[in-house]
Design a protein that fits this description.
By secondary structure, the chain is mostly beta strands. The protein has 1 helix and 19 strands. Strands 1, 2, 5, 6, 10, 12, 13, 15, 16, 18 and 19 form an 11-stranded mixed beta sheet that branches. A 5-stranded antiparallel beta sheet has the order 4-3-7-8-17, with no helix packed on it. Strands 9-11-14 form a 3-stranded antiparallel beta sheet, with no helix packed on it. It is globular, with a radius of gyration of 20 Å.
Length: 275
């Protein structure tokens, strides 16, 4: 599996054996092709656009791209860059090729149900994108606070039953938790791994699992569900088998990837109590 394939966009995916029998990427020899990963988040007044050259060496120059985000009543350019390794716009940052993170501070927060457009110019010419921000998923249960007792078994797990509902515009539903942890040197905070990584949108019920013991103990946390649209979802599904890698929400010569929107549910607090 070539390190320069766009499959590197998806850090959570692994190559299947069938990929070894797939035809070569017809764009593989074109160094000017760009890959785009962008997911807008409802409620945020900031947008980030992750752009990479998937067919250039990691030591090469990142893409020379200009772009603007367009909403009803305004148009705002991406005007500065940040280190892509710090996270960028819903795209993974483990690419093994040159990449750049473009940023825009918007005149208003991203709104659910609104259509947003992307317009830009890259090495191969102009490109456009369009997406509608999905409505936030609903958490029906649990309520505002969940209290958990740490299990006596050091290999145990915290279990949190959950009931939820998502709109038809949501294709991917992810539980996300940011927690406070404590070890011998004191408390610290980080994103907590939650199983399953994605919920079935249609099931409406599941049980979330969090490891009760890590290198540090979870003390408390805040959890929500993130609903991401179908452009991102279909890209993930199609990129496993299709060559060249597909585009969803994007059009333009030599451009592929995804442009999508997302929205977060309400949060509920998780408090861990020692027995």
């Amino acid at each position: 599996m070539s390190a320069h394939r766009l499959l590197a966009l998806l850090a959570t995916m692994t190559a299947g054996g069938c990929d070894y029998f797939a035809p070569p990427d017809p764009l593989k020899l074109d160094p000017d092709v760009i890959s785009i990963a962008m997911v807008l988040v409802a409620g945020e007044s900031h947008a980030q656009l992750l752009v990479g050259h998937p067919h250039r060496a990691a030591s090469g120059a990142p893409p020379d791209v200009t772009a603007s985000l367009i909403a009803p009543g305004w148009r705002f350019p991406f005007s500065y860059t940040t280190d892509a390794e710090e996270g960028c716009g819903g795209g993974p940052t483990s690419w093994s090729f040159p990449m750049i993170c473009l940023n825009a501070s918007l005149p208003e927060p991203i709104r659910e149900g609104v259509t947003y457009r992307l317009e830009g110019d890259g090495p191969r010419g102009s490109f456009t994108g369009e997406t509608v921000i999905p409505f936030a998923p609903l958490i029906l249960d649990p309520g505002d606070t969940v209290r958990l007792h740490r299990p006596a078994d050091s290999s145990g797990w915290f279990r949190i039953p959950i009931r939820y509902r998502a709109s038809p515009e949501v294709g991917t539903l992810r539980p996300e938790m940011f927690g406070t942890l404590r070890n011998s040197s004191g408390p610290g905070s980080r994103w907590i791994h939650v199983n399953p990584r994605a919920l079935n949108v249609e099931d409406r019920t599941d049980t979330l699992s969090i490891s009760a013991y890590d290198e540090r103990r979870i003390v408390k946390g805040s959890m929500h569900l993130l609903g991401i649209g179908w452009h991102y979802t279909r890209f993930r599904r199609s990129s496993r088998t299709r060559f060249p890698w597909p585009s969803f929400g994007l059009t333009g010569d030599g451009v592929y990837g995804y442009f999508d929107g997302s929205a977060k549910s309400r949060r509920f607090q998780v408090i861990v109590e020692e027995r």
